[in-house]
Amino acid sequence: MIYELRIYRCVPGRLPALLKRFETITLKLWERHGIRQAGFWTVAIGESNQDLYYLLQWESLAEREKKWAAFASDPEWIAKRAETEKDGAIVANVSNQMLQPTSFSSVK
Description:
Layout: E1 2-10, H1 15-33, E2 36-42, E3 51-58, H2 61-72, H3 75-84, E4 91-99
Antiparallel strand pairs: 1-3, 1-4, 2-3
């Protein structure tokens, strides 16, 4: 099992729009594509309260490539993302890292 840590740095003031998009659009599409989330977090105390952190769970990099490509090219996702950004961009920057649990991790 591998985990993908994704960090979305929002355009100032646009974090509520990103959270709404995940809650009402993105998660439903992920479910259809078999993408499994392992948790979402916002920053209560730290460098920026305009960031969203989340983990995705994958069996392998091959699974990630296949399912993420299908999601990214889904016509419904493309249309809904454009619709939610009609008032301007929501995300300023995205970073991601592929994490592999250690042998002593409580998460496998």
